[in-house]
Model the fold of this input.
Amino acid sequence: MTKDIFIGGGGPDYATQQFLNIGYANRHGLIAGATGTGKTVTLQILAEGFSAQGVPVFLSDVKGDLSGLAKSGSASHKLHDAFTSRAGTIGFDDFDYSAFPVAFWDLYGKQGHPVRTTVLEMGPLLLAQLLGLSEAQEGILNIAFRISDEDGLPLLDLKDLQALLVWIGENAKELALRYGNVSAASVGAIQRRLLVLENQGAADLFGEPALALSDLMRCDADGRGMINILAADQLMGAPKLYATFLLWLLSELFEELPEVGDPEKPKLVFFFDEAHLLFDDAPKALVDKVEQVARLIRSKGVGVYFITQNPADVPEDILGQLGNRVQHALRAFTAKDRKELRMAAETYRENPRFETEEAIREVGVGEAVTSFLQKKGIPGIVERTLIRPPSSQLGPITDTERSAVMAASPMSGKYDTRLDRDSAFEILGKRAEQAATEAAKAEEEAEAAETPALREFNNARRYAGKGVSRSTSRAPANKATEGFGTAMANVVIKELKGTTGRRIVRGILGGLFKGR
Done:
């Protein structure tokens, strides 16, 4: 039987318990606040609450602290007395320490099971955002994806895309008749961006076996939801890669999961930490895509919670869809800060007991201003809340403990070995090899046909009489005096070695693409 998730105590003396209604947990949420105000602990206790109710969770561990979810808290912890005191203050009578089922993931495969997707699954829109492409360059990328679909060239990893871009550059004139101008400069710019992306470690992200979404939506033997933790401390060194990967994962959930309407509880809760990275310098098309996903994915049973320092980091149209909110302290040192603080306060349903703007400025560490959806999805009155202590360990576990969790995971071994089946890179390579073989064979046949012709010509020009003196100032005899066979042989050989030969090779490749 499900029940609501206890968040903390509110009201006078924190005696009124605050809950997140699990039936409205898929209406999305926001965790905001300045650095050091307690966002990570709030994220931790929400993950615990969802897991306990059988709801799988996906979150990113930006600072490395959230691995502690895999280990029970302890009475020997330096904050034990403070936790016990807080639990008593807010009426958390059944507070106890406990570990939770955790699966570790890592794009680089070091601190968790490898996470991969294919270039094809990422799609041109997200890949263009990841690469920071111009409109013209994005057009070339769309052509590459179209050719991949039409000509059976799977784009699985980066080398597949790089090989296809080379082919597009070599056949730019032919493709321009079909798709419009294909600029060599744009192709080159994309290739350079891919090189930068590869240097950031993105080659580890693209490939197979690709992540199966079902592996993120599991429960353990006791019915508790699996908490999937993405190691993001190293990934944050490539912020665009981080944001684009999370957005891809959200998009995949949106596209693959069936409609479920308003379920009793979410099928998955997705926490998007450092959410400002998603929207910084993002084109309108991408922001519109995020808004669409946020608006519609709740009917798939997925709740999305954005975590950021300031609510102003989230576009207004998306912010309006976040019904469950935990607002930690905001600092207001400048006129801009004060304006944003005032705007944040205006988004809450007023409480006559205090000024919301003042409360957001004054709440201490471990406190927050909260508002959760009530019956019929109505926003609750804003409340000043003391957040409950976590049951799992506060802070990271050791590397040895992490390795033990990974070894015991059902995912152990499933994604460890990379697959490299035939895809665009291999197919294009085979076609080029075949074309080169046919060109070499044609050249050999031409050389074989040349030998008797040359012999006949040489025999015909022999003369036993006296030699005729010839002025060296005159031009040599023109080609009309040559034998027909010799002339044709020379032309074929010359053309095979020159530009026509290269055109024959490209023609073979083009024919193979169109006539599979």
Notes: Residues 336 and 342 are 10 Å apart (CA to CA). Residues 422-459+485-516 form one domain.
